[in-house]
Fold these 2 entries.
Entry 1:
Amino acid sequence: MVERDDGDARTVTATTLERPQARALLELDSVSKRYESVSETIHAVEDVDMSVRERELVALLGPSGSGKTTLLLLIAGLLRADGGSVRFEGRDLASFTKSEALAYRRTKLGFVFQDFNLSAGLSAQENVCVPLLLRGVPHGEAHGRARASLAQVGLERRLTHTPDRLSGGEKQRVAIARALVGEPKLILADEATGSLDTETGDAVLELLAALPREHGAAVVLVTHDIRATRHADRVLQMRDGRLSELQ
Amino acid sequence: MTGYLRTLWLFYRRHLRVQPLRELMALAGVAAGVALLFAVQVAHRSVTGSFEDIAHGVAGDATLELAARGDKGFDQKVSEDVEKMPGVEAAAPLLSEQIVALGPKGRRELTLVGATEQVIPLHGALSSQFQRASEASHKGLLLLTEPTARAIGVKPGEAVTVLVGGRTERMTLNAALGSDRIGVAADSPIAAAPLAIAQSVAQLPGRITRVLIEPAPGREAALLGALKARYGATLDPRPVDTELKLLAGAAGAERQVTLLFSVISLVAGMILAYNALLLASAERRRFIVYLIETGAPESMVLASLGFDALILGLAGCALGLLAGDLTSLLAYGGLPGYIAAAFPVGPQRTITSQTVEIALAGGMFAALAATILPALSILRSGAVTQRDGMARTLSLTAKASASQGTTLAAGIALVGGSVLAALLAPAVTIEALVGLAAGIVLCLPLAARGLIALAHAASARSGDASARLSVAELRTSAPRTVALLATGAVAAFLMVVIGGSVSDVQSAVRRGAGDLLGSADLWVKPGGAQNVYTTEPFAYEKPQARLARLQRAGVVRSVTPWRDSFLDLPGRRVWVLGPPPALKAQIAPSQLREGSLALADERLREGGWVAISQTIAEERHVRVGGRISLPTPSGYVVFRIAATTANYGWLPGAIVMNGDEHARLWEGGAAGGKRPATSGATSGPTPTQAQPGGEATELAVTLAPGVSAQRGEQLVRAALGPGSGLAVQSTSERRAEVSAVLGSTLSRLNAITIVVIVTTIASVIALMMAAVWQGRARLHSLISIGMGFGQFARLIFYESGTVLLAGCAIGVSAGLVGQYLIDGWLSHTTGSPVHYAAAWLLGARTLAIALLISLAASLAAVVRINGSQPRAAFSTQ
Ligand SMILES: Nc1ncnc2c1ncn2[C@@H]1O[C@H](COP(=O)(O)OP(=O)(O)OP(=O)(O)O)[C@@H](O)[C@H]1O
Ligand SMILES: [Mg+2]
């Protein structure tokens, strides 16, 4: 079940091993985001320039409260920047209509959360189906693709398990399968190993690191975990809302 | 101690901060219970409360009375004779008369009490105050209470128009007494005047209707015996509280209905509050674990739980009393209950400290029960020793599902047993209904599982991702599903049970009235809605003469006098109907219980026969063909029983008697033998020519063919003239009045269901909001991965809609069963032929409301989630 169904323009074959100097997928140009409250203004993201190329693995480090999640939300179009621009494949997110923003998240992005956010009432396979069903993929096809996706994360034998019968690492792998199933260009992972022990976390990291290579998706990996930098093409560091590049 | 309390208060504030919605919902539940309980109690107390006030206020130290049987009273000299009897400490004559007081602003139906200064030594608060006020002003005219004077818009010194006995009199208002002088009795529909003035207004010179008697110490029993021997043939010597007991008897069925609905209300409130707290139990469990881990003693844990209950109870009670007060105000349109026709009670609300206490006790009980039950399950499950709250929840549900079969069996057994018990023995209906409700609650968890399975099967075929996700959401939070189910079920149950039985009773009343009123086109009677049983007599010679002109002009075909009255039998005040003997159907067909209708009609027309309510016949152990002795104003008269009937809408029972015979016995007695008894009542005079100078309580007018009821009504009203003091109503107007007044108690309860609806709406929306808030990480993650707002709204709508609709469907079915049981019970206790007409329409409306509520809940949830950043998905909780 390694081969994906062909005929889809976005399909990238698993044989694409080498990474040619790909064009910029995502470009942030002096992006800022403030949170205003009565007593103070927090500059969560300040004047950030950043770019992510296709099939690139970027690790984003930074202490707690430095603005990493805010940056991800800006990239996903779930927050609107106060200043600067976020461009995906050359298009400014600010110019998106509501339905375009929705289509952007549905087709171009995949998400992996620290707390997995799986639905306890659904089996592993059904959970993976959700993004497809949301965009109207017929249910038979969705199930087939979900099964394939689960096989890619090594869970072909856990299809009918509900989350309460999965280990933490397995849950996160289901979540990764869910992020992958829509064949996104960019996967945003926020502390994906934060709720897992070291060993399980390592396995999940390996899996995430293999995504650009095996699935052609770029990955922005937000983490506290310095080990994540091993797999990264680039390591970025956030501090008080400002971004700098390490290495 | 204060430190301890402060700690508890801190804990409580923490709960409030962590789960404000659920605290609010629990509060709403308790408040709803209290509000319902309060409103129901006020509805009940108001029936008897004002009467008690007046009775005590008038009688004072008097413990015995000599009461007239008819409305013409008896000779005032009797009072002087009584005063001279041995063992009498003091005696005072009274004349009571029903009047309508008219002012520029409105009209009020009142009981006019005429008294002399002899009432003062009896120390009755009310009568003494009235008496003093009239002496002080030296004019000695009409006295009203301040609220009455204000309502009709007159000030002391101004003229009041008084309608009495089909005549119009003008009196000058002497003074208006406020509550500062006569207390709560100021709200009573009462007026006073010196005896002589009252006698002249009532056109009963020298006559009284009651003598209040204060016996010498220790002489009461002997005196009562002597009074019976001397006056017992034509008057009623009796303890002064007899009328109160008669009223209690008449209101007995109401009291039971009240009790039933009090219990239902409280249970409903408790379930609502319990639901809310059940939802919070996972969080509470974590908190208790935290307390134990930090080394708090067990007593602290218990105290914290108790403190929660206390705050919930107090706040719920305060809110509930406010809401209840509003509700009962809303439910009181100034319509007098049917009781007001036979007893001088007003349409006003009476709120006693007891009412408030009952509501408070109920609220505290509900709060305690709702708090303790989930807490017990937390403590018993041993959560305290477990670190991982999540694992506990799961093992708890696993344990619950193991015993679910037993629970379901118990629930079904309870439902079946309750229904069976109520069917076999209607007297235990109240208990059975509580059992029914409890049984259904027991069945709900399994019903929820079944529902989820069904929804799953249905959504599997649907292409809508929202539908499949909503099933997943339902599965994820089983307690919420059960809570939503229960909320819907409780609300629908209450609405259908109350609404359904109210309309059944009303249609029973309407049917009875229809039979009775079908024989004429127009009805002429004095007074307003309070005279719904038409028991106020008036001289009909003049009105009839006026209508005779219309008769000659070919507008009116016939004018027939009816003669109705109330008669006190031991323990019950019965309604005596006197249809004109010319009328073919003497007994309303819908009311017949035993006997042949045709034969009974014939016998009644002959005279010497009566038809009596089944309840009276059973009490007296008599049957059709047997004999019964009735205490008429002319003395005891033995009648034969032609048939037994239902009670014609007057709960204590009815007697149908030939109208002429009725008039003869009542007016003959009224004249004290001075006026010649009207001749040959049994000979059946022609309908339009009753004896001159006779009295009727109602005139039935049939119109000539081709004359519309509306036109006839106008002509008859014009013919009677503006000063007649008589009201003209078409049959349909009269019918509407009868059903409005007779169904008033139940209608008030019906209005109370508004509280249920409002609480349900608040409760469901709060539940869904809480649910959305609790699941915000998951929901935000769904939005992140591409769920549109439409899809999100549908998800919430399907989730709440499925459960709420299912809950309502369960509630409606149970409600229809409950309605059937209550109908049976009402026919049993009231003797009215209440027929079951399943409240389908109401049920459908309830389901529609449920749909609307789900829609509102989804909108609220979407707004709530939309208003916040989808950040929750990205952070741990
Ligand atoms: N809705 C908000 N309103 C106000 N301030 C906010 C809001 N959301 C985040 N912040 C603040 O913005 C700053 C950046 O938050 P953000 O969640 O992006 O940090 P982070 O780097 O993801 O931290 P962590 O590693 O702990 O997840 C923090 O100081 C936070 O308190
Ligand atoms: Mg973060």
Entry 2:
Amino acid sequence: MNAVVQAKAESRHLLSGNEAVARAAWEAGVRVAAAYPGTPATEILENIALYPDIYSEWSVNEKVAVEVAIGASLAGSRSLAAMKHVGMNVASDAFMTQSLAGVVGGLVIVVADDVGLSSSQNEQDSRYWGRFGHLPILEPADSQEAYEMVKRAFDLSEEYEVPVIVRMTTRVCHVKAMVTVEGERIEHPAAGFQKNPQRWVMTPANAKPRLPLMHERDRKFRELSETIDLNVAFAGSDHRIGFVTSGPAFMHVRETFPNAPVLKLGFSCPPPLDQIRAFAGQVDTLVVVEETEPLLETEIRAAGLDVRGKDILPRFGELAPNVLRPAIKPLLGEPYEVPKRSQASVFPRPPTMCASCPHLGPYFALSHIRNLNIIGDIGCYTLGAGHPWNALDTCTCMGASLSMAHGMDKGRGESDEKKSIVAVIGDSTFLHMGMQGLLNMIYNRGNVTVLLLDNRSVGMTGGQENPGTGEDLHGLPAPRVDFAKLVEALGVRPERIRMVDPYELPTMVKLVREETKMEEPSVIITNRPCSLTDRFERFRSYAVIDDKCTGCGNCIDLGCPAIFVARRETVTAKSGKSKELVFARIDANACTGCHMCVETCAPEAIVQPQPQNRVIRIQPHG
Amino acid sequence: MVEGITNILVVGIGGQGVMTAAEMLARTAMTQGYDVKKTEVAGMAQRGGVVSSHVRFGPKVYSPQIDPGEADLLIGFEAAEALRWLPHLRATGVAMVNTLRIAPPVVSVGLYDYPPDPIGELAAAGIEVHAFDAGAIAEELGNPKLVNTIMLGAISDHLPFPAEVLKASIVEGFRAYKPKLADINAQAFDAGREAGHAKTVSRRSAA
């Protein structure tokens, strides 16, 4: 068992922010926790799952996760939902109204903003949700604070009967830092659901009387924000600039300007405006350092205070010391030149699909068929937009492929008349939010060819389970959705539902060709598991026989990272034209023997050598 | 910059064990009573991308990130990756580099070139560089996964605590979870330590 799960009171541990949240949830007596995987929040539920006292699940999407948490709360259980920032958009329908009705058992929503965009499609600022939904926000700056604030959040949630948001960022979730674990689990038994339609049935008649209560709650929170010990002023000897800051930006400020006074907001929504006013009076210039949007800054300015912020600091990305220094130093009258460093010129190393990735086959097919508009989705298959496939034309949000493809079909321009519209989506994304798009397309008589790439995992976040994998968050057997039956039930004709082994390239290409010519929707479902999961079966690796390789380069087009260019040669063809030959080599350590490349090789130069005693493989690593 | 902080940057490619090595350094520093922070940028690293793990320890660590020009030690698990992160190393820094070269598909298909002599370029920058083929040592010891421990052995004499402390921490870790691998990792650590001393490409230019 994981060491921190067994951690004793007062012991110190090196924990990521996500691990700290899990420990805190356990100590706080959480009974139900739900999430959908998403970087950088994924490990919160993975770690909560290690504590047997908590019921935990992968929900099919973030809205479902929050609703599960709300239901548990109404039954009197402390509950937690975790998600990445874009998950909040999906979940918002639920909490925007529950904010009005309130909660019973403490309900905490942990949201992780991907400041710096390490693995996301946008960089939105979740602190808006606190303002929009009248919900308080706590902002930890490191693992210790994540641990403490999650526990505080549950107390506040119950005291004020409101969901509480804990806003993390990548630089809290994934930083490992020292945490002193204070205690053991304190049980909060569920009182059971108390029926009360005026409270829980949000019809207009019942919701209206809740509005003044919600605004009264806001007022109480404004008062609380002025006095709560999570908002702390650090005295400094150099009063030329005083910083108002929150989250990991606080750490960067302390690192860069150790002598400056700092007002750190752990309870940042609503902000303590009186405290900020008093703090401003003690410094020459007030500067707000906040990631990402100028939210506190706008509120402070609206309160009539002079403040600097996004006029000198970037509105995106992390506010690390090397960003703060050049922005702030000139304010101090200390000109700052960014040190000149020789920038080493090294090639990029863009993320790519893995050896024997089951997405390679479909993208080989898509990159070899003309006149397609390929509408993509969120997952590893988004990498199909890159080299060498260049076979993905859009990526917006979870599940968008099917509905956007339908819209593109209906809104065809003249240049699209002869094109086929393809939607590419993975199993988990389809179950998250894609199904509705397919239902909509069928209902409205659209014509899109859907590639449902079922690799039986949430691949990009590290191979988590979903209702299509046959296992749950704990790796225990679970009912497994039948995709063919599901899409048939949504209205796809059985003749147009094609199951295919993505490793069989000729079939894969043929099927995509056939189905994109059809005048009705089709769904092509692939059936090989993600090659980084335990479900993947590794075979003996292949090698290229140099004498037989003709340099056609077909296998290179597959985009498998185990296949390399051994050498190039320019030859003159009979026609007199010069032509470049590309001879291939296979890295035996990386090759897993999936056999796909063999099917691209006419001269049969790719073979399985005699078995070797030792298999060497770089282990995938999160 | 806060006084008394050691900044170690461990770099390589997803799957090489960069984060495990960084974790080992962080945990060992913790046992020595330091405040420790460790962070990495590895968003989609599992798919063959660049991984850089920052380890900072000292009396009190605020920001988890190492600024450009602030790393005391650079551990490169791959030659071109070490070169990529050279600007993060301070002028008095030490680079410990595995000479392994892994060309990504964009290089393999000819869109970019692999630098012809990354170790030479590092040496030319005037920093202290030690470079050796950790993979070859691992092969000799019979397990390619030992590269991680070999690299840690190599850097161990440049840490603010004794090399033996790191070695004990690694070996005890294996003894607790994978006892069969404890002895071979002890050997790998020593072999790495020796290689780190022997394979000196350039000393710091006397300033």
